Records
---
Amino acid sequence: MIRPALVIAGKDLRLVLAGGVGLAQPVLLGLLLVFVFSLARPAGELVPPQAAAGVFWLASLFAMVLIYNTLYSLEEAHGARTGLLLAPLAPQAVWLGKGLAGAGLLVVSQVVFLPAAMIFLGQDFHGGVGLALLTLLAGDLGVCVLGSLLGALAQGQAARESLLTVVLFPLLVPLLLAGVRLGGLYFEGALEWEAAASWLGLAAAFDAVFAAAALILFPFVYTGED
Amino acid sequence: MNADNTGAGWVGPLAAAAGLALAGAQWFIFGYAPVEATMGVVQKIFYPHLGLAWWGMFSFFTVFAAGALYLWKREARFDRLAGAAAEVGVLFSALALVCGSLWARPIWNVWWTWDPRLTTALIMCFIYAAYLVLRASGLGRERRALVCAVVGVAAFLDVPLVFISARMWRSIHPAVFKRQGGGLEPEMLLALFVTLFAFGLLWLCLVALRARQLAAAERASALAAGRMGL
């Protein structure tokens, strides 16, 4: 399952990045979000660290919706989805492959969003990089697990981005709370193991529960029907 | 399809029983249970509130169970049951939030507070409202049933995570409001159980009726398609 998944991820990344347009839309949307939120800051006042972390994660979530939408629409033309379904590989390999490709694209977008959040929302760079990376990993893992599972749900639908947003965002609330709290601690410079452990545990539990669910449920979502 | 037709027999009497039970519950609430000493007559909201909240949560469990059964058996009646339960669940939870809010205004002095239970109920409302949006989004029948079953299962897996995260979120803040302790008077407890039972009957009745309605709508559109030779 791993090898086919890597092949699918590589194919998707090449297709999305070939024109360079693929990633422009999610990155631009996220940047716009950060910028628009920065307008809400009264002149001369600081944005609370937790609010800045919230804006960062919201930008990431909107980018994620666009990314998975793009990834799953790659197969919509010329009946390519049927070809992928007929290929001798476990359907879960498609989930894993798309998940990996999306994770790569999401990380690239976040590389843009994080400095943007710091610059526009006036946050400082602090130590504790290891825990910050762990937070990003735990958050992105859950976001991609669920995004890859449900990204296929609106295939062949008009207005699927909005549908995906409405379905995904409330499901992601626990992960979003963990990300906002941990990110807030990081921007405050107070991200330490004792404070972070329970939230990281929650995020890991979220990742594990939905990864297990996705392995079982994905074959039902990704089908040849329209 | 036969199961839907034979269901016609028991829904009528059930509806009558639910009506009687609700009327009886009103008497238990206002005539039998004593007026609470500190909260006064406002506390009466609590009985229907708990009935709505419990059966709302039970609906969401039904969506999960029916979704899992649909994925396993692929029978359309489970899909209809999930759809009906989700609609009633969103209605009940929203009403529970509204009447809880009406109760909280005089008692807690705020309309809303980030209590784990309130937060969980609100987020569940959002999730299942999104589920209903998905149902209405014009996917093909088979495809919609599959996708909705998957979302219904995933949504219920989220419930404990949402509750835990909401509790952790709040635990950092000081506990502004202590929950009212459980020690209910026996008369209040009896009134509570009667109300819960009455709302249970109402819930069953609404879900059964709605599932039958959905089955009838499917038959009607199948007939119309047949007439037009599609």
Note: Chain B has one domain: 43-173+185-227.
---
Amino acid sequence: MERIPILKMGKFLLVSIQVDMDDRTAMNLQDDLTAQIVKHRAKAVLIDISSLDVVDSFIGRMLANTAAMARILDAETVVVGMQPSVAITLVELGLSLKGVRSALNVERGMEMLRGIAEDAPEEPTDDGDEK
Amino acid sequence: MSDTTAALLRRHEDEIVREWVRLQQQDLSMRNNLLKTGELEQQCREFLAAFVAALESGSTDLNAPAWSTARDLLANVSRSRARQGFTPTETATFIFSLKQPIADVLRREVKPEQLADELWNLTRILDTLGLYTTDTYQKGREEIISRQQQELLELSTPVVELWEGVLALPLIGTLDSARTQVVMESLLQAIVDTGSEIAIIDITGVPVVDTLVAQHLLKTVAAARLMGADCIISGIRPQIAQTIVHLGVEINDVTTKATLADAFAIALNRLGLTVARKKAV
């Protein structure tokens, strides 16, 4: 069974989808991602879908749902590198991914993440407890 | 029949061509500027030779290989005439005016009891050729139309880069579903290729905005947004603003500007750029 790796970088999680997503893989990703967000107390998630050529309504909904779940767990979602054909399909399906930020490529996406991290107020308990 | 007739026609080839060309020039007196006499005579001579050769084969089926030379010649003639702007009648005249000189020759040379049969046979063949001419003419015209449609489609959707990171898409003409699809794809592809974050869709040249067009525009904006680029719609004329409101189309979450200049200013502003006057030295 394929699992999509989730990388942790500071307060961000990086997900790069490099394989054709089937429904099972998508559900696993959703489970793993929510678990990781909680575990690492991530502030933001970056999902790179630049090698995704085809989406169906399920994957589209999965993306939207994942973003909504991340929001509840206090993490922003940035989707980067969406292909034109994918964008057109999602719009035709009526999925405009409200609440999901998007960026043209990973570089811009990282800039956006840093912006999010700066905006987020520092939690006083974060450093205090460990000292 | 064909042997004797073909031989007869071959013997009188020069006479027939001369008469044929004369008749056509009479009919096409207005078109002399489009067709040179030499060219016309050459076309006639070539076709008559092919026609007689096909008759000699004895076949009356125009799809037979024996007729292929004659058919190709005819197709070329009618296609080139379609391109030059001849009417269908004028194009068909090419083949139909051949009847007269051939009938003249036959009437003179063939015995009266055979004449009716020979004429009937020739008339049938020439009529079929005439129909074929018209078909080819029509096809030629259709090719022209579809090519122009394609050109129009390509011409009408240029995506231009106004600044590094700012694309503009000046839309001109009525938007239908097919065009919008092309517009959408070329804009999104350009966004990927140039890595632009801002795209300005200028609808100054769009005469009418109905619900469908508005829907298409909003879809394009939504797709660009999904990819991480922002769209600004500019060039909204007063009537169009009124129409949009009357139609109840919701475009609240899209930035709209009256002119392309305003939209460009906003775009530069978002990129953190300013335009300043050069200091006078």
Note: Chain A has five helices and five strands.
